Amino acid sequence: MIEIEVEAEAWTAALPAVETVVGAAAKAALGAIEGDIVVLLTDDAAVRDLNARFRGKDKPTNVLSFPAPESAAPHLGDIVLAYGVCAAEAQAQGKALADHLSHLVVHGVLHLLGRDHEDDVEAEEMEAEEREILAQIGVADPYAADPSVDWQDA
């Protein structure tokens, strides 16, 4: 089950089909994996607070992933996205908000599934998996448009 909570109205104002976009991306990233996830669409202030509390970084970021402990199965974890950061990134990169959001949701789900990008090899593997998943839902390669995307802070 994919539960989508829209806490910041800016998401639906900018992208009326936001829940459909998030659901399709999350479903594609999960593939055949069984499990529940929660996706919270919120604002920069809420993400900044979470980022400060859980990562020691007092600033908003685009997406945060919180994997659930194995004992919480079938819950895989939670993903939180900040509207302002995501919208600004999409605009700066010349991407549709729906496509950028799809990418960030896929990225977040992959983190819940244990993927990471701590070194160059992991980053290349994760990016390849993201490209493959996004292609399945009709989203262009997010790295082709902006190869400077740096996930080390996400």
TrEMBL record:
Q: Which Pfam families match?
A: YbeY (PF02130)
Subcellular location, in the record's words?
Cytoplasm
- Keyword vocabulary terms for this entry: Cytoplasm, Endonuclease, Hydrolase, Metal-binding, Nuclease, Ribosome biogenesis, rRNA processing, Zinc
The answer on whether this UniProt entry bears the keyword Zinc reads yes
Cofactor detail note: Binds 1 zinc ion.
Record Gene3D superfamilies: Metalloproteases ('zincins'), catalytic domain (3.40.390.30)
Which annotated residues bind Zn(2+)? 107, 111, 117
Q: Which domain of life is it from?
A: Bacteria
> What does the record give as cofactor?
Zn(2+)
Q: Is Membrane tagged as a keyword?
A: no
Reported EC number(s) for this entry are: 3.1.-.-
SUPFAM superfamilies xref list: Metalloproteases ('zincins'), catalytic domain
Which family is annotated? Belongs to the endoribonuclease YbeY family.
What HAMAP family does the record tag this protein with?
Endoribonucl_YbeY
Q: What does this protein do?
A: Single strand-specific metallo-endoribonuclease involved in late-stage 70S ribosome quality control and in maturation of the 3' terminus of the 16S rRNA.
Protein name per UniProt: Endoribonuclease YbeY
From which organism does this entry originate?
Answer: Brevundimonas intermedia
What is the name of the gene encoding this protein? ybeY
